[in-house]
Amino acid sequence: YEFIFEYETIEELNQHLNSISKLIDKEKTIEQFENVNRLLLLEEKDKNSKNICFYKLETKFIANKKEELEETKDKLAKSTWQKYENVFKDLKEYFDVKDINDINENQYKEFRNYLIKKKLNNVTINEKMQYTNMFLNFAKIKKLIKENNMENIKKLKVEETKRELFTLAEI
Questions:
Q1: Is the separation of the CB atoms in 100 and 52 below 8 Å?
Q2: What is the mean pLDDT of residues 136-156?
Q3: Which among 60, 43, 59 is positioned nearest to 51, based on CA atoms?
Q4: DSSP state of 167
Q5: Is 109's pLDDT higher than 90?
Q6: I want to staple 99 with a disulfide (CB 3.0 to 4.6 A). Which of 26, 51, 72, 136 is the partner?
């Protein structure tokens, strides 16, 4: 509502909104460039190495998922693709270019604590950990990693919300 009253004309409002959207797009483009640049530097650094980080795993997982969907003529909801992107973003933010083979169970628990500190609720954290486990299982099946060091981590407790039922009179 504040936008409506800060500007005298719709043109001024549109101009401001356009400038903000360009800034947001610019920031996302810069982030994508930095990620691609980091990947290229990483590939150059260890061309002969079998190291795999979450940047590389994301590329391989997404490519495989697209290939699998094309093969089965199936589709994934846009929200699922966004969840993949968000979970990989958290993993890359936390672990950066660390080799996944060098990440132990305690470090995955520390990652979970990092998500807790971000003030995410337990349902969201459990979902992110479940996706991470799925990514690691994919990597293990494709022989990109030796072991899934996250498979034994338990879920956080989620308190059930009590719902009030309506009486017939209220309906």
A1: yes
A2: 94
A3: 43
A4: P
A5: yes
A6: 51
**Residues 70-98 pLDDT 10s:** 999 999 899 999 999 999 999 999 999 89
Query: What is the torsion angle, in degrees rounded to the nearest 10, for the CA atoms of residue 79, residue 55, residue 66 and residue 24?
Result: 40
Give the residue ranges of DSSP H helices in the chain: 2-6, 10-45, 54-72, 78-95, 105-117, 122-141
Q: Closest Cα partner for 134 from 67, 66, 88? A: 88
**Interval 41-63: pLDDT, tens:** 666 655 555 789 999 999 999 99
C-alpha closest to that of 103 among 35, 40, 46, 52:
52
Average pLDDT, whole number, for the chain?
83
DSSP character at residue 46: T
Predicted pLDDT of residue 61 = 95
Please answer whether residues 90 and 115 qualify as being in contact, where contact means their C-beta atoms are separated by less than 8 angstroms: yes
For residues 42 and 97, the answer to whether their CB atoms sit within 8 Å is yes
DSSP 118: T
Q: Rounded distance, CA 92 to CA 128, Å?
A: 13
The reported pLDDT for the residue numbered 27 is 67
Coil vs helix vs strand at 76: coil
Asked if residue 101 lies in contact with residue 51, where contact means CB atoms within 8 angstroms, the answer is yes
